[in-house]
Amino acid sequence: MSGARQRTRPAVIGDVAQLAGVSNQTVSRVLNDHPNVRSDTRDRVLDAIRQLNYRPNLMARGLVRQRSHLIGVVSFDTVLFGPASTLVGIGRASRDHGYGVTIVTPESSDRSSIADAMATIAGQAVAGVVMVFPSRAASATALVSLPEGVPLVAVEADEDIVTSVHIDQAAGARMAVEHLLYLGHETVWHVSGPRDRLDAQARVDGWRATLEAAGRVAPPVIAGDWSAESGYQAGLELAERPGVSAVFAANDHMALGLLRAFHERGIRVPEEVSVIGFDDIPEAGYFIPPLTTVRPDHEEVGRRAVASLVSLVDGQGAADPAAHEWVMPTLIRRTSTATPPR
Amino acid sequence: MSGARQRTRPAVIGDVAQLAGVSNQTVSRVLNDHPNVRSDTRDRVLDAIRQLNYRPNLMARGLVRQRSHLIGVVSFDTVLFGPASTLVGIGRASRDHGYGVTIVTPESSDRSSIADAMATIAGQAVAGVVMVFPSRAASATALVSLPEGVPLVAVEADEDIVTSVHIDQAAGARMAVEHLLYLGHETVWHVSGPRDRLDAQARVDGWRATLEAAGRVAPPVIAGDWSAESGYQAGLELAERPGVSAVFAANDHMALGLLRAFHERGIRVPEEVSVIGFDDIPEAGYFIPPLTTVRPDHEEVGRRAVASLVSLVDGQGAADPAAHEWVMPTLIRRTSTATPPR
DNA sequence: CCGAGCGCTGTTAACGTTAACATGGTGAGG
DNA sequence: CCTCACCATGTTAACGTTAACAGCGCTCGG
């Protein structure tokens, strides 16, 4: 048909206004659910929107509102099970709250990388920031390098500085240790995560506190770094020591390394040594033997972090800028733990 | 000091211009590396930028340029090792190219979820979209539900529709099978990934083609779903069959399940059955026994996908809207494979 | 019957940036 | 010495949206 030019450019608010026979501002009011619009006008506008398949340009909206529709996520170790799961929770919750998610992964966890990541995030004019599994220094650095007025929620962060959501690491560690003590072990060894990680430290503290509460002597911590390799090395070390009957690994990957080291040294699990992990990765039930472990709900943590952030952004949470939430883990019993050898 | 009001609002281009004693446009020219700026002017501007810690507002820039600084990523199964690694590569490469990343994870992989995810992405005015590990139907759906002019690059997508970057799955499968044939196995069984996944299918095809090229009979495919559980079930099934001497699992998690099933049935690996995996997850070296596997470079795939997308966005790749790239995996030999029993 | 107030809509001016065009100066070639 | 070209910079006008204010007509109370 002559004159029937194909519109190549997506519709803008003016096109909608014209088609509906109203002003731009009225369309804007409909879009933003302002009260004072007559309902037949509203219907006409909504009709025009559908007809033109109009979607508001979020950059223009963000520009004038001085706030974007994006939540910035700063995440470390995104291939690991915990952070990855948390990210899933964050993604779902953000969508439910009407926000997009933009992710940046710092090169390393030193201050300058983090400041850099924050600057990148800030440049995207995010409404708020969620930080996933920061190291000890990270949350403080993040706070100072973020522009005024951009709220920050951290997952597993240093407690007093910033709003945060945590797995109740100490409770999880307690479950693990109490389970082993209940089975009759005299004490429990611990292979920890990296020293500069707060979640790792919380597991160490929980482990030690539980042993001491039971009047047991806490053996020295064997330091790992989350990797199966470090668990393996720890296992070789523990295999040399007499009297080791139970080991609590700070995550399942290190527990896997332990199992392998004990197997290699001919030490049977659980008959001679009990091993318990943390995380309940999907594979944990298929280790040899199937791993008893503590299951934290990482997704829930992500969801709650976003919920907190959104309420902070909307200014409703302003009263309490450093609130804390805890998510309780559960113990998953499999066959890598048993009563100690006679 | 009286009068020394703290600036609460971040610096804008006008502040920089004023401090440097030039016009906004000159600052803009410096920011965008335009040639015609005298070098001492440039230095003064750069100085002012540093001094004010100025960062351009990406929403304003995107608005006037009619194109955003964001790459949209649609990803499935983000907790899995492969997709998660690819995401890391995408993140790094995007940053290097000066783009941000916004992620959306569809609820499921059916058409409406994908269309929905695309609408979400489109609403964020992304410059282009990377789709990670879509199912067979996904890339087609994605293409039609994306606004005109927004390029799409897929990782492991159906070949002819869309630009894509792939792991050379067939080559990886060939390496695995040839390794086992070389060791002297008569044939190789295969535990596959989900049927609707293209990467899984490519591994099946490569496995079958290699066996046939060697004049061997390909046994029936045992269908899995990537999970250790499905590998375990497959292992129980294979344990019942006589004459199984070598199994190629389509990923390491299923291989773990196989190892566990064989262990449970008293079948020794590798003495009685050889097992090979795919992915080389960081834990694979700590399975019992350490897993021989094929290592694909997922990060590289992510990086290349972004590179392709960026060239498409910049219009330089317009000549070839459906190019394909392949990334070659490598074989990692450990001790889960050996010569067949006598 | 008049004025105040309110419900609905429109007009104008931002938000921060860059594209397009304008301007003034400097150097080279005739 | 004049002109043309080009380099360096400035000025103006967008991009698409919403906030702030203005105005119109109606209702309701005195």
Explain this structure to me?
The structure is a homodimer of 342-residue chains. Chain A is α/β, with parallel strands linked by helices and 342 residues long. In chain A, 44% of the residues lie in helices and 15% in strands. Chain A has helices at 13-20, 24-31, 39-52, 58-65, 81-96, 111-123, 136-145, 169-182, 198-213, 228-240, 252-264, 298-313; strands at 70-75, 100-104, 128-132, 152-155, 163-167, 189-192, 222-223, 246-249, 274-278, 292-295, 324-327, 330-332. In chain A, the strands form 2 sheets. A 6-stranded parallel β-sheet of chain A has the order 2-1-3-4-5-11, sandwiched between helices. In chain A, helix 5 links the parallel strand 1 and strand 2 (100-104). In chain A, helix 1 (13-20) packs across helix 2 (24-31). The first copy, chain A, is elongated and about 90 Å long. The interface between A and B is large, with 55 and 54 residues. The first copy, chain A, binds a DNA duplex (30 and 30 nucleotides) through residues 12-14, 22-26, 28-29, 31-32, 35-38, 41, 56-66.
List keywords for this structure.
homodimer, 342 residues, alpha/beta, 6-stranded parallel β-sheet, 6-stranded mixed β-sheet, 12 helices, 12 strands, 44% helix, elongated, disordered N terminus, DNA-binding
